[in-house]
Fold this sequence. Notes:
heterodimer; A: mainly alpha; 2 helices; B: alpha/beta; about 45% helix
Amino acid sequence: MAETNYQELHERLEIVLDKLQAPDVRVDQAVGLYEEGLKLIASLEKQLKQAENKIEKLKLQSK
Amino acid sequence: MQISLIDVQVQGEVSPAQIVAAIEQYNAMGEPPEVLVITRGGGSAEDLQAFSTEQVTRAVAASRIPTLVAIGHEVDISLAELAADQRASTPSNAAELLVPDRRAVLAGLSSTRKQLSRQTLQVIKGARVGLALSGSKLHDAVGHVIQVGTQQIELKRRILGAFDPQAALQRGYALVRQGSSLVQSGTQLKTGDELQIQISDASVTADVKHVTMESRNG
C-alpha cells in the first residue's frame, strides 16, 4: 500500500469517511470501512514520516 | 562574463574625441554589450578634464547601452559621471557594481534552501493535522453507527417485550394447552379431556368437567 500515491490514498480515505457517515450504512459495512480507514491512515502517516525523513536527510546533505 | 576593451587616451587634447569614438563604436555594434564601463584611475583635476567636456558628457548621455562611469578618486566627480546611468566612485567600485556579490548570492541561496525545507515540512505538518482530523472523524462516525444500531436494537427489544407471553401471564392470564396445541376454542374440547394450564409461576394439569360455549355476538 505504501507504493500507492498519497493523493489516491487520501481520496480513498475521504470516500471511506463519506460512506461511514452516510445515514444508510450498515453496522457490518461500518466495521469494514472503519478497518479500512485505520489502514489508510497508517499508510498515510507512514508516507508523511518518510517524506519528513527524506527532507531532513536532504537538508543535512545540502549543508 | 565577456569583456571587450577599447583603449583610449584618458587625458590630453585627443582624449575627448577618442572617448566619444569608443562610445559610438560600441553603440553601433549589431550585438552591443550589456553595459559600457568608462573608467580611469585617479589624477589631478586637470588630468580628469576630458571627462567633463561637453562632447564626452553628451556621448555618455546619448549611449543606448547603459553606462557605468567611474573616474578617479571618490572626491572627483566629472560631468560624464553625472550623465551616466550609474556612477561608481572608483574603478574597483565599478567592478563591484557590475557583478553580484558572491557572499550575498550564497546567503540568498542558503536562505531559499532553508525556506524550501521549512515550507515543505509545513505542508507535511498540515497534512498530519488533516490526518488526525480524519482519524477522529473515522472514530466518531463508526461510534455513531454503533450507537444508532444499539438504539434501534433497544427499541426493538422493547417492542418485542410487549409481545412476550410471560408478561401476559404476569398480569394473570393463562395459557391452556391440550397435548401440544394451544386451546383457542371450546369446540376443541369435550368433558374428560386433560388440559395443561400454564400460569406465571406454575403449570397445572386439569380435567374438563363441562364446556359451555359463549355467544360472542353481544
